[in-house]
Amino acid sequence: MLKGFEGVIKPKSIDAELFAAIDSKRIPAHIAVIMDGNGRWAQAKGRPRIFGHRAGAESVRAIIDTCRRLEIKAVTLYAFSTENWKRPRAEIRGLMTMLKRYIRTDLAEVHSHNIKFQAIGHIEGLFEDVQTEIHRAEETTRENTGMTMSVALNYGGRAEIVEAARRAAAQVLERGDNVEQLSEEDIERNLYTHGLPEVDLMIRTSGEFRISNFLLWQLAYSEIYVTPTLFPDFRRPHIFEAILDYQKRDRRFGGVK
User: Fold this and answer.
1) Could you list the residue range(s) of the whole structural domain that residue 78 is in?
2) How many Å separate Cα 12 from the centre of its chain?
3) φ and ψ at 228, to 5 degrees?
4) In whole angstroms, what separates CA 122 from the centre of its chain?
């Protein structure tokens, strides 16, 4: 039977066919996801945009469950950017309420599977009640040793690099060096994702070919997969398809084989 998916994937189903084609020795260590298309999905159904965000929560659960079963080491989800504050206030309030509810209701499930939860971004700029739920989830799962689930909230890639560079420069001066000795490793140590594997695969839903200020440093040599599927419809077969596409890539990292 399918290892890791016993009783979950039905034999001879599309899921089973896709899973059987995956090379278990070439699974990406770290997958990042731009979760796009919630609003368009809702509007196509004549519903308010927040309805799409709520539906997208099921896709988040599918991603985390599938990646956990595949023994992927890290998943990073782009949930709320610094630019998203420009959205209507009602939508922002709805997103924050939904986020708080998701963390509260899914924490036990995440913790039971030995998953470590962390939020990355300018967390101090979020609503205080959301911060409280985030800190509780991080503290509860801090010692977990399985997959790391990172959720990017109030996050901007440029801001992350600027903040990391400032901290790294201060550390260089503190150790008695000059700023000309600042290295990539110094910056890397101060990124939100420090300690995680390199991002091997970045998935964007909804068909948009943009990285939208997401993990600008970390995506330097990532493989990028874009699917036209809107995020609320994104499920296990789509994850398998993305991984199969990734496994077809010839990864040279700027060199020649």
Assistant:
1) 27-156+197-206
2) 30
3) -70, -10
4) 16
* End-to-end Cα distance, the chain: 36
Catalytic hit among 65, 84, 106, 233: 84
Catalytic residue (choose from 15, 36, 186, 200): 36
Predicted TM-score of the model (pTM): 0.94
- DSSP conformational letter for 151: E
Total domains in the fold of the chain? 1
Residue 12 falls within a domain, yes or no? no
| In a domain? residue 124 | yes
Catalytic residue check, 36: yes
Whether 144 sits among the annotated catalytic residues: the reply is: no
CATH code for the domain in which residue 73 is found:
3.40.1180.10
| Inside any domain, residue 60 | yes
Q: Residue 133: which H helix or E strand, with range?
A: helix 128-141
pLDDT tens per residue across span 132-191: 999 999 999 999 999 999 999 999 999 999 999 999 999 999 999 888 999 999 999 999
**Rounded CA gap, 228 and 207, in Å?**
4
Q: CA 37 to CA 145: how far, in whole Å?
A: 32
Residue 247 has pLDDT above 90, yes or no: yes
Tens digits of residue pLDDT in 32-66:
999 999 999 999 999 999 999 999 999 999 999 99
Residue with tokens 């560079």: 165
> Mind listing the pLDDT tens digit for each residue in 99-117?
999 999 999 999 999 999 9
Rounded CA-CA distance 88/79 in Å is 16
**Per-residue confidence (pLDDT) for residue 1, from 0 to 100:** 41
Report yes or no on 46 lying in a domain.
Answer: yes
Q: Give one DSSP letter per residue of 204-220, joined into a string.
A: E-TT----TTSSTTTTT
